[in-house]
């Protein structure tokens, strides 16, 4: 392309075109994925990158059509993340010259109940005027809007993060329920023959799903091959499995290992390792007698706790979201002697497995003041014959945090995902 420079004081005959320039060569392709002969040591994805979203959500109503742009191609309900824009257009139906004003209202609330009380708390109430009639002006056929979705709200002079869309139905045992929901209200005002404004409103439910990611990549290794070379990658939670009074048996020691990051992606499996150790006689009691030999109950569950705080009175319910896959590791327990007087040294039993969040869980834990949602892993170990066994059942819980996005920057759609 020729570039011509011109100045009023220059002789037009002396002006010469600049030489031709060609575009620079494109940058070579780069990839964050290692080659077969390479190994990734670490990666820091750009948390500020915005992923492109394609598709619109169209809401048809007898009074207007509302189009929400930049939505996922498979979405039926408009969804937004933290720091995102609610953008689109409103097309009013009917005679546009009678329209005097069009308002856009974003509403949000938290509703919680327990056995004796209930509370509805407003988190958002923002009104934006999209069109205001002036003399000689007619409402356009398409009215654009671009409204930022807030990320904070204030409750009793204390600022909280805006909670995600969430619903926990009424529990028959605790009478506890909780709901966080958001709506967009489009209101169209018109002149009428009786000089009273005619108002038509369209209420549209929307979802708020703030995204987040863990601070470092997930651990894909099993415990035994990696604990010596990566000891900091594992967290050990220890407990004691008690015996009944007067049983004459010594307690067992239990060690529950999970990745030390304690922050996990909803769509990824959480690895774990369990080790139980103790005298052979106590281990044998855990499995039952030789005539009634049976595997003990070893389970790992992913639980969610919903806590409602009404006027300082807290009530809660625990919900099981997933049951882990637990596998016993060789070698099997061996003991050459019979009875409780076994003189074997300490015996070690190991299990490993994974647990993954249920597909219907779409948000991680949060704290919005009146409503707190948190997640934890629950390890339960019980003897094969609980009623007659001299070993008591054991229950151990460890709080974790669930986030929406993986550490890797590989998601094709969505808004920014922030490091935890």
Automatic annotation (TrEMBL):
It comes from the Eukaryota. Residues 1-47 are annotated as: Disordered. This is Arrestin-like N-terminal domain-containing protein. It comes from Pterulicium gracile. The lineage of its organism: Eukaryota, Fungi, Dikarya, Basidiomycota, Agaricomycotina.
């Amino acid at each position: 392309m020729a570039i011509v420079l011109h100045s009023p004081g220059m002789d037009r005959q002396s002006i010469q075109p600049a030489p031709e320039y060609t575009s620079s060569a494109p940058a070579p392709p780069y990839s964050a994925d290692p080659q077969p002969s390479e190994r990734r040591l670490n990666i820091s994805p750009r948390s500020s990158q915005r992923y492109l979203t394609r598709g619109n959500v169209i809401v048809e109503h007898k009074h207007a059509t509302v189009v929400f742009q930049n939505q996922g191609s498979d979405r039926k309900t408009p969804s937004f993340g933290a720091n995102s824009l609610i953008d689109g257009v409103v097309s009013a139906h009917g005679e546009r010259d009678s329209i005097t004003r069009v308002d856009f209202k974003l509403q949000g609330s938290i509703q919680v109940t327990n056995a004796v009380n209930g509370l509805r708390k407003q988190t958002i109430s923002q009104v934006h005027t999209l069109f205001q009639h002036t003399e000689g002006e007619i409402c356009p056929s398409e009215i654009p809007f671009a409204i930022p979705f807030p990320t904070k709200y204030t409750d009793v002079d204390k600022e909280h993060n805006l909670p995600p869309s969430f619903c926990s139905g009424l529990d028959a045992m605790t009478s506890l329920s909780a709901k966080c929901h958001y709506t967009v209200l489009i209101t169209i005002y018109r002149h009428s023959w009786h000089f009273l404004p005619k108002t038509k409103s369209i209420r549209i439910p929307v979802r708020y799903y703030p995204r987040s990611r863990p601070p470092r990549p997930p651990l894909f290794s099993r415990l035994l091959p990696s604990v010596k070379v990566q000891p900091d990658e594992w967290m050990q939670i220890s407990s004691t499995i008690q015996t009944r009074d007067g049983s004459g048996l010594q307690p067992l020691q239990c060690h529950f290992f999970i990745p030390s990051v304690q922050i996990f992606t909803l769509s990824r499996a959480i690895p774990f390792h369990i080790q139980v150790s103790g005298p052979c006689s106590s281990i044998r009691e855990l499995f039952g007698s030789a005539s009634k030999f049976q595997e003990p109950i070893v389970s790992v569950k992913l639980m969610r706790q919903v806590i409602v705080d009404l006027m300082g009175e807290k009530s809660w319910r625990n919900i099981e979201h997933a049951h882990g896959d637990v596998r016993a590791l060789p070698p099997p327990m061996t003991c050459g002697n019979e009875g409780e007087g076994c003189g074997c040294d300490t015996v070690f039993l190991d299990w490993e497995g994974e647990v993954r969040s249920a597909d219907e869980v779409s948000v991680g834990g949060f704290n919005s003041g009146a409503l707190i949602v948190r997640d934890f892993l629950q390890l339960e170990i019980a003897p094969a014959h609980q009623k007659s066994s001299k070993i008591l059942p054991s229950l151990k819980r460890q709080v974790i945090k669930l986030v929406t996005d993986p550490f890797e920057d590989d998601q094709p759609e969505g808004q920014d995902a922030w490091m935890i």
